[in-house]
Design goal:
Shape: globular
Oligomer: single chain
Helix content: 40-55%
CATH topology of one domain: Rossmann fold
Number of strands: 8
Strand order of the largest sheet: 2-3-1-4-8
CATH architecture of one domain: 3-Layer(aba) Sandwich
Number of helices: 9
Bound molecules: BIS(adenosine)-5'-pentaphosphate, magnesium ion
Largest sheet: 5 strands, parallel
Order of helices and strands: EHEHHHEHEHEEEHHEH
Distance between the termini: 14 Å
CATH class of one domain: Alpha Beta
Radius of gyration: 17 Å
Strand content: 5-15%
Length: 220
């Protein structure tokens, strides 16, 4: 299954994509995670991307399109993939169509999550990430068993540089201006599937699995 998670910063795309990736045994492709890894590694692409990310702006389309194009050709995508945080502009969505056509693939569902701004800010300000494996937590809603330590790999948790309130507002503005139009874009293609953005993480996970199971039954 080839899927996209669409939603504003803090909507829970990464949280749900990671859970679904384990259930379906297909990779989660997060352009944000890939970019953050490049920033840490100090590659030329990472150094360039950091300027945009730190200010809460989107990284230029050609950079992220190049990343996804390369990633989708890896063997682990043969049985499907989950795009988390891509596409984020109409130009990226058009570029994705072209690359998928070349690969003879198509997106089955765009799982669209919406959450009001106030809740997004609460989620983002309490988010912590594992510095080694990238697993995300929330200080209140999804805390690690031991404070500051990743349950999975035991490494330290950190707060993302762009998770400050000022940067967060800019990220939200970017979302409404450049990414939200994709809701209509995919709705017109009849592949948009609204998913509840609020509620317990497990309940949202169950809703997503129900939707996908229903679609598998419908197609069989
Ligand atoms: P990216 O890393 O993709 O960040 P984002 O889209 O801003 O989204 P987030 O990762 O902040 O939120 P999320 O929806 O994944 O939420 P999460 O599951 O973590 O991108 C970062 C930057 O990279 C961008 O600003 C841009 O510069 C650049 N970039 C990346 N992709 C790009 C692209 N395609 N084009 C251009 N530039 C690009 O959840 C948030 C918190 O809430 C967590 O703490 C979690 O534990 C908690 N939580 C989750 N679900 C719930 C729930 N149901 N109830 C309570 N808490 C919850
Ligand atoms: Mg994320």
């Amino acid at each position: 299954m080839n899927l996209i998670f669409l939603g504003p910063p803090g909507a829970g795309k990464g949280t749900q994509a990671s859970l679904l990736s384990k259930t379906l045994n297909i990779p989660q492709i997060s352009t944000g995670d890939i970019l953050r890894n490049s920033v840490r590694a100090g590659t030329p692409m990472g150094t360039r991307a950091k300027l945009f990310m730190d200010s809460g702006s989107l990284v230029p389309d050609e950079v992220v399109v190049g990343i996804v194009e390369e990633r989708l050709q890896a063997a682990d995508c043969n049985n499907g993939f989950i795009l988390d945080g891509f596409p984020r502009t109409v130009a990226q969505a058009d570029a994705l169509d072209v690359m998928l056509a070349r690969l003879g693939r198509q997106i089955e569902f765009v799982l669209s999550m919406t959450v009001d701004d106030e809740k997004l800010l609460t989620r983002i300000s309490g988010r912590r990430m594992c510095e080694k494996c990238g697993k995300g937590y929330h200080l209140v809603f999804d805390p690690p068993k031991e404070a500051g330590i990743c349950d999975l790999c035991g490494a330290k948790l950190y707060q993302r540089d762009d998770d400050k309130v000022e940067t967060m507002r800019k990220r939200l503005d970017e979302y409404y201006e450049k990414t939200a139009p994709l809701i209509d874009y995919y709705s017109q293609k009849m592949i948009l599937q609204p998913i509840p953005g609020t509620g317990a993480i497990e309940d949202i996970q169950n809703s997503i699995e129900k939707v996908l199971k229903g679609s598998l039954r419908d197609n069989s």
